Description:
Order of helices and strands: EEHEHEHEHEEEEEHEHEHH
Number of strands: 12
Oligomer: single chain
Low-confidence stretches: none
Amino acid sequence: MAELDDGMINSVGLANPGLQEVKSAYLPWLATHLHRTRKLVNVVGNEADDYATVVRELDDAASRLSSGPGTFGGGIDAFELNVSCPNVKAGGMEFGADPVALRTVVTLARAETKRPLFVKLSPVLPDIGRAAQVAVDAGADGLTVVNTLPGLAVDIERRRPALGFGSGGVSGSGLLPVGVLAAWRVSRMVKVPIIGVGGVASALDVLQYLIAGASLVGIGTAAMRDPRLPERIVRDLDRWCDHHGVRSIGEVVGTLEWTT
């Protein structure tokens, strides 16, 4: 991981404790804590069947936990399929970049759960609106846009990549207009909830995503730098709504006036 002027670049991978550890340790804790927090489990895999396996086993485990006293949803409110992963059976092409592979991943996962299913799309897709349509047609309840952008940061003193791996995913303020455009394009293609992610560091950034069509907005890199930022953004959104006579933040969702 390396810091940039207005963001960061990382190649930390998708580190996690593994399916069995999540089932035995993480889910029981989540099922009895954070009662007011909606929890989306991000799912990755090397093959299409991997997604279905993870969703099936976690869904079953959560369902068993939800029947116990003091539990809430078994620790899982929804699943999010990260289809930016390389499909090892297709030579490393991202699942989201191949309509057939994307449809297969979503269809298999959909068959394993009744919980809401979101699909997280990459900003480098040639037609992100079309990918969103494929995902929804296959059973997705919502979309998350966007993932990081691929990039390279150079250590000029060593004349080597700043990251040990070499290239990495770029996040931060530079990703904001990319994500906002993706949210708008996706909202024009499908009528499902959209989570806008990428470059958010202020209430004004949140409003851009909402006006473009997102119904929920995530904060990543900026919150890592300042963990108290999200609550300040919420307060700023309250003030903005009061100033503009907006009774509910939902009133601004999808109100962008732009035709192409």
